[in-house]
Amino acid sequence: MSEAAVNTRELGEKIVTVLKTIYDPEIPVDIYELGLIYDVFVNEDKDVKILMTLTSPNCPVAETLPVEVEERVKSLDLVKDAEVEITFDPPWTQDLMSEEAKLELGLL
Predict the structure, then answer these.
(1) Model confidence over 8-47: pLDDT tens digits?
(2) What is the crossing angle of helices 3-19 and 65-74, to 10°?
């Protein structure tokens, strides 16, 4: 595996660690375990793109949560730039939550 691939993977893991510190204000579970993060792309230039969704299009933090995600990811030293794209395809459902999140919310 090339050094760039290793560094990209390590950076991806650091990004996930940061994402796990961001919480949906209505649900006491972080956005990663909640299943709101669909994908994290990191290129060799250390540009990051995050594909995420919200629990609903009318989510009260629809304006602020993506900005918070971008700012937190950009705060990592190795990240050159970060962009968050919101999608509702596929729509979020409780099935996307991790077992840990379901347990936390009493759904198991």
Answers:
(1) 888 999 999 999 999 988 888 999 999 999 999 999 899 9
(2) 140
